[in-house]
Model the fold of this input.
Amino acid sequence: MLELKEMAVSDRPREKMIRFGIRSLSHVELLALILRTGTRKHSVFEVAEDLLRSAKSVKRLSQMSLADLCAIHGINQAKACEILAVAELSRRMALEEVYETDVVDQPVRLVEWLRRELGDAKQEHFLVVFLDTKNHILGHKVCFIGSLDRSVVHPREIFKEAVAYSAARIIAVHNHPSGDVTPSENDLQVTKSLEEAGVLMGIPLLDHIIVSHRNFYSLRQTFGNRSKEPA
Done:
């Protein structure tokens, strides 16, 4: 592949972006803009291609660690930090969009965000989303990491957080690292426990959602109780 300096000026990523817009750039060209330079033996485009190959997809760039990125020839610590900073900004922009949404009227944004947050996690994460009376998100918190069990999901601690947020209702969420979002017996028991506690506290459990990198399952059918393939 040509070195950046060997390309016609009009074909270089920055000039192409200025002329045709940012969406005209390929994944490799976008990464080349961030990386800026390659090595003596490899062009910036080859380094960008190696990076995409290692990540397996653009989505998974944000899940790479500093060490993972630095292991790629041509990416030093400074470049790795810049890549992670861009990925984190993207994550936060998506989160802001979800926070401004009525998650019942527009559930797709919520589910997409949850899949992005938890779908590829190697361990089970139990997260609680706190909602106001208009179903807007007040905040969220990962309350537990590990195999889901009634003995480790304590309604008292979850509703203590809900009260601190002045939440009107909550959504419980956890991921299945296996990719199979079928609820287990433990999932059903945890849902029942939280539902009963919510009635007592006057802060109802709106739903319990199971997510994977491809699908989701809504135990209370608030979000249609359907699976969703990634775009």
